[in-house]
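QA checklist item 7 of 12: single-chain prediction sanity check.
[x] sequence parsed
[x] length recorded as 171
[x] structure emitted
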Amino acid sequence: MTELTIRDTAVEDIPRLMRLYDLARAAMRAMGTDQWQDGAPNAETALEDIRRGISRVVERDGLVIATAAVYVGHEPAYDTVYGGTWQSDAQTYGIIHRIAIDPACKRQGVGSFIMDSCAALTAAAGLSVLRCDTHAGNVPMRAALSKNGYVYRGVIHLLSGAERVAYEKLL
């Protein structure tokens, strides 16, 4: 298997991101999970993530096989956790959002590679806390988070009001 690389997303990558988002949407729909079924993330989301410098793509042999928003910051939606607490009271931490992996590349360590990249970015910023959230029905993502050392911490509400399960990892 060829080595994985991660890089900042370029505007030219947007058509591939749209394909990855569509594939992820279809997989979630097949699981009966309504995450991303409203059409987001979309090209506007991708452009905004590129503008903010948080969009990354994973490549193998020059082909984009996955994408994620990976960054250090603060998420207002994480300020309150229902039915649990964060392990850390850090106000700045590593964050992973919008992971989409080509289904042909699942079970090849791509998700772990993305999460390890976020951990490296977080550590390089001198921080030791990572957070992520997903839909309660997104069983594959929840399993990937647990496999990579993230601990379920409770429920958060996105700014839209949607409920998500929240995870945290201490480095």
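[x] summary fact logged: The radius of gyration is 15 Å.
[ ] second reviewer sign-off
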